Fold this sequence. Notes:
Blueprint: H1 12-23, H2 28-32, H3 36-48, H4 54-66, H5 69-78
Helix pairs in contact: 1-4
Amino acid sequence: MSNVSKPAGAEKKVVAGILGILLGGLGVHKFYLGYTKEGIIQIVITVVTCGLGSLIGLIEGILYLTKSDEEFVATYITGKKGWF
Length: 84
């Protein structure tokens, strides 16, 4: 076991990534990260585009999972970047 600790918020990366991939069209990953406004916008985009907007969630989920823990925290937890 490693003594290196993860930055605060890194534990949300995997869950947010999986939620983005599986339920991205419903904005669940955004609600999980605390982005309520963006989550509602994601739902509207998915409904207006007849489901095509769910690709945004898929892409974001993959992006979350491919970032390092430090980069994820800096971008989405500390930086509060709501989109991509």
